[in-house]
Amino acid sequence: MSDTRVREAGVRDAGATRDAAPVPVVGPASARPRAGRLALLAGAAAVALALLAVVHLGQGTAALAPDALWRAVTGAGSTQADAVLVALRLPRLLAGLLVGAALGASGAALQSVSRNPLASPDTLAVNAGAYLAVVAVAAFGVVLPSLPAGATAFAGGLIAAGVVLGLSRAGAGPVRLVLAGSALTLALSGISGMLLLLRTQETTGLFAWGNGSLAQTGLGPVLQLAPVAVLAFAGLLVVGRRLDILGLGDEGAASVGIDPRSTRALTVILAVALAAVAVTVAGPVGFVGLCAPQIVRLLGSRVPGLMRHRAFLPASAVAGVLVVLGADVLLRALFGAQAGVAVPTGIVTTVFGAGVLVYLAYRSRDTGTGSPGTAFVRLRSRRAFVIAVVVAAAALVAAVLAAVLLGDARLLLGDVANWLTGRAGRVVTFVLDTRLPRVTAALLAGAALAIAGTIVQAVSRNPLAEPGILGVVGGAGVGAVVVITAIPLASFWLVGAAALVGAAAAAALVFGLAARGGLEQNRLVLIGIGVSSGTTAATSLLIVLTDPFNGAKALVWLSGSTYGRTFEQVLPGLVVLVLAVPLLALSTRELDLVGLDADTPRLLGVRLGRARLGLLAIAVTLTAAAVAAVGVIGFVGLVAPHAARSLVGQGSARVLPVAALLGAVLVSVADTIGRTLIAPAQLPVGLVTAVIGAPYFLWLLWRSRAEA
What we know:
Blueprint: H1 3-12, H2 31-58, H3 68-74, H4 80-114, H5 126-139, H6 146-168, H7 175-198, H8 206-210, H9 220-238, H10 240-246, H11 250-255, H12 260-282, H13 288-300, H14 309-342, H15 345-363, H16 382-405, H17 413-420, H18 426-460, H19 472-486, H20 492-514, H21 523-546, H22 551-559, H23 567-585, H24 588-594, H25 600-603, H26 608-630, H27 636-648, H28 652-676, H29 685-707
Helix pairs in contact: 2-14, 3-4, 4-9, 4-12, 4-13, 4-14, 5-6, 5-7, 5-12, 6-7, 6-12, 7-21, 7-29, 9-12, 13-14, 13-15, 14-15, 15-21, 16-28, 18-23, 18-26, 18-27, 18-28, 19-20, 19-21, 19-26, 20-21, 20-26, 21-22, 23-26, 27-28, 28-29
């Protein structure tokens, strides 16, 4: 296919492929200027890499002379500084080079093959699948060399990518892929977290590694896996010409003898192999595969030849190295060399990548996620509503009884009766005095998150929105952790107030940015996912910086836990619920009208802005109370409202009570499972809800895929 034909086809399809793979639109006349610009850009990148490498090697707890590297490499020196350089700093630098290049090229390939500018090893759950595979092997005491470990990570990443691509194939635009990848990532991360807690001895050190750490103990893993990355990268360069033509459309590619399906399959396999190499060496370093290709695209407007895949892939690899090394240098420059050892580099890249995702979502066009009927179904009969309430209430009673009786110590109903009458023994009294506040905290948190999710879905007119996905839960977590780490003896009222401030700030950021063009757009979900990722990374950073040896504390808080709760600590959540429920009972009409469209409320005399603000204030307050009580828990605000609508149909007056009951049941059952499954050890409730809720969310996406 001649360059002229490629240029003409690119002009015809420019509008259809604006967010797709890079399309070559150059001709022979522009070859010389293009080569000059590419050479200039390559020279600038080489200089930047060299400067970063020098600065990177010079950072550490011990000062090194400028000629230390040369003496260490040639063997001319034998000082302790030379040994440190060869054993620690040089492996860390080479790991950054390998990981950055692998993730940058992998993200570029995945974005091209999916025609989605938001695709990356993170959003396709490749990193989460690879991480789970490595953790699962380590949890059972199996120690694998680098190459078998890389093969294990490759298998896990490939399976995860297949699931996400299968769910998002029928979606119109990027939002479905990101939603499916985020949901699967939460589920896989929940399972990984369970394994980390269940097999603490076998998985020591994997929490920090799970956030992406460049710390190395030698050159072995890098040298063994580098050839794999080189082969995979070479394979991508070989298929680069096919990707150029594939970007023009499947029909155009097939007309010149290129099989789109086999090209996509081969590209995904090679991209996952690169991501697996990066995960094996340094763990899942977040969002590098998203940021690096976007940096290259920004430069591509000035250097057109850069957008051809045989230039785009290497350029993305170089951009990935700059992002990883830059993040590592920035980390140690801001927090010191010692903190640079304890704080994973992936936390910094995740914060940066979350900002990039928010920016891309803000600039993106709305594309929809599926049929509205998936969430907002027809109104069912009053009899169905009554039956649903009775069944949900009965399930709640059963869940409460199970929660009270089960745990590390099994009780009988008679023990509870004796405790109520003051005739129980010391053991039973101690068990119930510690267990009942936990049960109460789970019930209140579940109901609060379910009600908040119902409000958020109605106000945003988005059936896939919920406080966790929109970053409100994460914002509350940041606020609470700031107070907990700064004031260890802070009261729960102060922690709750800080959580409220954090949740309000996150909600203002998400809804403020998404208000461009209307809150009903799916831009809201993408911005929320970006903010959620950023707040999760910020929470991990706060905990690791203040307590660098307590990774389990970060894992438990980010996973939600009812451990150690007292009645005094659950009182703020109870007060918020008692105040919110009557207000919502008086606002069900506004909630229904706000969920319809932007015009109907105004025609009926409802001030849309004031109604949205008031309802969101209630949702944010409920979310903050729940997070202050049990930590960060996801999916409850999505699963409970959806299940309630499937039972009672539309109508906030019916959905709210059923959703509250179902949310309380979900969190209570998850907490009971976490307390009894591995008793006397315990699993955080948030991990259990993620494992339960994420498959339900994926099923919702699958159902809307079929409807589409």
